[in-house]
Amino acid sequence: MKDVTVIVGAGGIGLAIARRIGHGRHILVANHTQESANDAAKTLEFAGFDVTAIEADISDRTAVRAIVAKAQDLGPISALVQAAGVSPSQAPIEKILKVDLYGTAVLLEEFGKVIAPGGAGIVISSQSGYRMPALGSEQDALLATAPADELLDLDFVKGVKDTLHAYQMSKRCNSLRVRGEAVKWAKRKARVNAISPGIIVTPLAHDELYGERADFYQTMLKKMPAGRAGTPDEVAALAAHMMGPEGGFITGSDFLIDGGATADFFYGSQA
Fold this sequence. Notes:
With 271 residues, this protein is α/β, with parallel strands linked by helices. The protein has twelve helices and seven strands.
């Protein structure tokens, strides 16, 4: 029986990571519709991977538990990649918080109970979490460690003003959540981290670059020190390092990979 890699979110970044770390493993692809999960599975199968597809809404704990159960049927779970999410241009406040913040926390809780020794998890967060003003230490601790089912009832989470704020709050929570979960995952001799990409060439990024906040994102792209957008394969290369044996000392961390956009935001000529 092969080890299992679970990819939640069948977008460009999730599939790029699957290709990097999926050799010799059974890949379980979970996406919000069965059709999209099947399409992603076919793409990986045509590239030579052993794949199963499942529909799952990560904002529903029962659905997350179904992913866990299916993965366990396939073999020991050695890797989790949480790459599912919705952007400020794609969804209202409630859905962003339910998927990006709550859903990620539930995934980490449920997979943290069953991850195999030596296993590793990666959450794909966002540079956006770095742009929200700092919270207090008590608020940080709540985002990192409060039970997932209590997160959406926190006053400062319920107080978000718009979709961008909801997205930033969710991604700040992702970054903090891997710290809190790293302590728990260590009890199973497993690790968990996050990656916060900037503008990466994916359908989600296309929605932002040409959506209601297009001017903001187009300006960010032009000012970026790297001079270009990133690619899913660049994120996948970082994920493979973090999840592999060379990243064995990395846990509870969030890595920013944004072409210097955050540096320019805080310290550029127009900061």
